[in-house]
Design goal:
Bound molecules: zinc ion
Shape: globular
Number of strands: 27
Largest sheet: 8 strands, mixed
Strand order of the largest sheet: 8-7-6-3-2-1-21-22
Distance between the termini: 83 Å
Number of helices: 16
Helix content: 25-40%
């Protein structure tokens, strides 16, 4: 009798039902003896939530930490932050072998070197389109077009069936850099038989096909050629094709390129090291910017998402030490705002417009194209791969629902949607959601990772909303006040609606409460603290209609 088919499961720990924070795991074997393969380990975007002081959101990997000895490897599809951004912080908890292609590995290494104290992270380099064995998983890289070099889909072959994990992809027969999506390999795996396609849903709501990166390059070249003064182009730093298009356009009309912004300098360096910038002219240093005539320069700037400390934001505020833009100059947004960043981007655009700078966006010109497949491209992929099961990922609920509907219309036999933390059995007899794994978020707060469930951030949110009253009392052993209470209000209005000092009102309440406490209670510092705090909070709430945090310090002498 043949061995029974081993269970093959999929569980997203991030990236499903949200854009960003991609981390998927595949498990092979029975519940108690599963071997895991992790795919990608990215960050989410803090701007989507109200998390003051937090820049990065990372997936909670407690499940993988528990299963560490059964985790065979972490395979990286490409170098975008939503796929690699959490590795440096989380890898020390897993110490798992990592596999990536040369550009992605170089990018990770450059990033690691930019972070003081970051651990050494060994990465096994996989050639573009290469094939590796990771535990019981046979993983083949398939080149796909996207908005960063060396993006790959993964063919994951197991004894229980073959999975196509698309990663981020689109169809572009003429990418400026790198290989087009490998239709031949995808068709061949379709002939071989594919159990499940786990696929990018980002642009499933958009009809038709994406324009080519080459057409974007032509449009940028025209806008740079006919610009009357200085030109700045902002784009995602990692979009090496776009950087190359700008460099080529600049050279064609006799302009020098100056790179403004650390993240972009790093990518340019990596692109040169890994051979993606062959025949691209050397760029000029930032210090030369001021000496170049306006019609002889193109500035490549970070800040396409309106990040307040980025080059373009500082230029828009006229706060950049080397780079200025004025009336008659032109700024091209070769990008689109990630959901949640629209306001920040609008602020930068308005700052530039007020200064008389002409701003060009994808609203009126073909200056940007997304790296994700639209509906006709998704249909092509399904026609090539012919999977038994489609499971949409990499999207919000709406994107995944649209992707699922498209797959059903295309005749895919089984379509299933799930959310972060669902465990889906793909074989045998899949798909079926059979279990849940723990998922959640971690916040990178300064240098420390904090659990999203911990009090830190909710406390900070309350602070930002309603301030703090700090009160220090010195009491004798008998409970007599030995000195005036020390009171400090932080983040609270100075006066109430009638113009009376809130600090004075709090002072009076503190004295009144302490003096009226029964003697026995007054001798107990905790009881004093509790009574005073409760009275102060309700008094301030009555005056202000917001309840502050109250910090009590009661000293007994
Ligand atoms: Zn991507
Ligand atoms: Zn992505």
């Amino acid at each position: 009798m043949a061995d029974p088919i081993k269970e093959l499961v999929f569980a997203p720990l991030g990236g499903v039902g949200e854009i960003g924070m991609n981390l998927s795991i595949y498990g092979l074997g029975d519940e108690r003896r599963r071997t895991w393969l992790a795919v990608d380990c990215g960050i989410g975007f803090a701007s989507e939530e109200h998390v003051p002081g937090v820049d990065l959101v990372l997936p909670d990997i407690r499940f993988l930490v528990e299963e560490r000895k059964n985790l065979a490897g972490l395979v990286i599809t490409h170098g975008h932050e939503d796929h690699i951004g959490a590795i440096i912080d989380l890898w020390p908890r897993l110490k798992v072998p990592i596999y990536a292609t040369p550009f992605t590995a170089a990018l990770l290494e450059a990033k690691r070197q930019g972070e003081p104290g970051a651990p050494e992270i060994p990465v096994t380099i996989v050639p573009v389109g290469g094939r590796i064995t990771v535990g019981p998983f046979d993983v083949e890289y398939v080149a796909v077009a996207h908005s960063i070099p060396e993006s790959h889909a993964l063919i994951i072959r197991t004894s229980s069936g073959t999975i196509l994990h698309t990663g981020d992809w689109k169809i572009d027969p003429t990418p400026v850099i790198g290989l087009p999506t490998d239709e031949a390999k995808l068709t061949a795996v379709g002939d071989e038989g594919v159990l499940a396609l786990i696929g990018d849903s980002t642009n499933a709501v958009r009809e038709g096909r994406s324009p080519s990166e080459t057409d974007v390059g032509k449009s940028l070249a025209e806008l740079i050629r006919n610009a009357p003064g200085r030109v700045a182009v902002t784009t995602f730093a990692s979009n090496v094709s776009r950087l190359r298009s700008v460099a080529d356009a600049a050279r064609a009309c006799g302009r020098e390129v100056v790179v403004v912004g650390r993240a972009m300098e790093r990518i340019v360096q990596v692109a040169r090291e890994t051979g993606y910038f062959e025949n691209v002219q050397p760029f000029r240093s930032l210090e030369t910017y001021g000496y170049l005539p306006p019609d002889k320069v193109v500035a490549l700037c970070t800040g396409s998402q309106g990040e307040p400390r980025s080059a373009l934001s500082r230029i828009a505020r006229d706060d950049h030490p080397e780079v200025t833009f004025n009336r008659g100059d032109r700024v091209i947004f070769s990008s689109r705002a990630i959901p949640g960043n629209e306001k920040a981007v609008a602020a930068v655009i308005n700052g530039l417009v007020v200064r008389g700078v002409e701003v060009i966006t994808d609203r009126t010109h073909l200056v940007h194209v997304s790296g994700h497949p639209r509906q006709a491209e998704l249909e092509d992929m399904l026609r090539w791969v012919r999977p038994q099961i489609v499971l949409p990922v990499h999207g919000e609920a709406l994107h995944m629902a649209e992707h699922a509907a498209l797959a059903r219309r295309a005749g895919v036999p089984k379509v299933v949607t799930c959310l972060d933390g669902d465990m889906v059995r793909l074989a045998p007899n899949g798909p079926e959601i059979i279990d849940e794994v723990p998922v959640g978020r971690l916040y990178k707060d300064g240098r420390i990772l904090v659990d999203a469930q911990a009090r830190t951030i909710p406390d900070r949110r309350r602070l930002s909303f309603a301030g703090v009253v700090s009160i220090a009392l010195a009491l004798s052993k008998q409970g007599e006040l030995l000195a005036d209470p020390a009171i400090e209000l932080t983040g609270i209005p100075e006066t109430n609606a009638a113009g009376e000092s809130l600090s004075d009102i709090v002072y009076d309440v503190v004295l009144e409460i302490v003096e009226n406490l029964p003697r026995a209670r007054r001798r107990d510092p905790d009881a004093v603290a509790e009574s005073v705090s409760r009275a102060v909070r309700s008094t301030v709430a009555r005056e202000w209609s917001k309840k502050p945090i109250c910090h009590m310090h009661v000293l007994t002498v």
